[in-house]
Amino acid sequence: MRGLETSVRLPDAAACATCQGSGARPGTAPRTCPVCQGLGVVSQSQGGFALSAPCRECQGKGFKIDDPCPDCKGTGRRERVQRIRVPAGVADGQHLRVRGRGVPGERGGPNGDLEVTVHVTPHAIFGRSGSDLTLTVPITFAEAALGATVQVPTLNGGPVGLKIPTGTASGKRFRVRGRGAPRSGGGPGDLIVTVEVAVPHKLNAAAKRAVEELAEAMPPTGADDPRAHLRSMVEGS
Question: Which of 28, 29, 138, 168 has its Cβ near the most Cβ atoms within 10 Å?
């Protein structure tokens, strides 16, 4: 969410300081391949056609190293620790390209680019949908029925107060503006909060009596029957 600078260890990503990238022991130099004459390919005639194939003598490099550098073993490259910047709001699987920080070319050639694939570790309670963060918050039956203001955690700041209206059903979604992930174009997304009415597993005597009195005061009949639409659909079929 905030972005960071981190280090990655890259094999063969820098020119060898001992041989200056040539791959040959200091004081010596690679020699031109005697088979392909430095071209890296050889021509073969087959049925009146000339076909090119990589030179087997030099493996297509065009040169041979008789006395390899003792430090890089003839590769001309060594390991390098590279610092990279991961931007805020990066998504899982996103690709980053760092120009000129890749593997150096053959025989002291320029570096290529470094391509980084970012993997974001999932959060314990927050999910993500684009630039929006998602969160499921449990509320009590009393809070859902009577309404309340509950404290909701956020990733980019302290908790915020979320107003739960009277008669909120389980699964209702609320939007908290500006508490999501950073957008690439600037500004944060939103936090999408889904409330879930928590049903207690055990009730003490007083709570049980209160629920029984509520059940007597609100029998599931008429407009208060939550299953009335199911019966009407069956009877009308």
Answer: 168
> Quick one: tokens of 222?
């008429």
CA torsion 12-18-20-24 (nearest 10°) is -90
First to last CA, the chain: 53
Closest CA to 187 of 85, 87, 89: 89
Q: Which residues partner with 176 through β-bridges?
A: 191
User: Ramachandran region of residue 90, left (φ > 0), alpha (ψ -120 to 50) or beta?
Assistant: beta
Tens digit of each residue's pLDDT (9 = 90 or more) over 178-199? 999 998 778 899 999 999 999 8
CATH number of 127-219: 2.60.260.20
Q: Which long-range contacts link 35-38 to residues 24+ away (Cβ below 8 Å)?
A: 36/62, 38/62, 38/63
pTM above 0.85, yes or no: no
Domain extents for the chain? 127-219
| HSE of 115, CA atoms in CB hemisphere, 13 A | 4
